[in-house]
Amino acid sequence: VQLQASGGGLVQAGGSLRLSCAANRRILTFNVVGWYRQAPGKQRELVADFSRGAVSNYADSVKGRFTFSRDNAKNIMYLEMNNLEPEDTAEYYCYARQGYVKYWGQGTLVTVSS
Question: What pLDDT is attached to residue 18?
Fold first, then answer.
């Protein structure tokens, strides 16, 4: 399984970015897909994920600002990030889980300047 993340960059506070993650297999085959992030000196944390049962889960810090979506036909998942804050600066990783196995994409760096 390969996950290819893209879309990171430098943005001013209050701005927006959309991250994309393309999978080389049908994302509907995974139990859960989503995004984590890791800020410098901090542990990796869940940002948002979406289970096969169509239940979405967001970190409290991003609720109302970030939106997870996916295009099942293209096997791409997205993370729309609005009203970005400097605290959102991190390496963002997409992931997919099937059973107990997690697959990770390479990180894409998001830097939010104040």
Answer: 98
**H or E element: which one contains 33?**
strand 32-38
* Length of the chain in terms of residues written: 114
Q: For 66, phi and psi rounded to 5 degrees?
A: -110, 145
Q: Please, what are the averages of pLDDT over each run of 10 residues along the chain (114 residues)?
A: 96 98 93 95 95 84 95 95 98 95 96 96
Structure-token match 């995974």, residue found? 30
Whole-number pLDDT of residue 109: 98
Contact 27, 50 (CB under 8 A): no
Structure tokens that stand for 89 in this block = 């600066």
What contacts 101, CB < 8 A, 6 or more positions away? Answer: none
CA gap 42, 95 in Å, rounded: 18
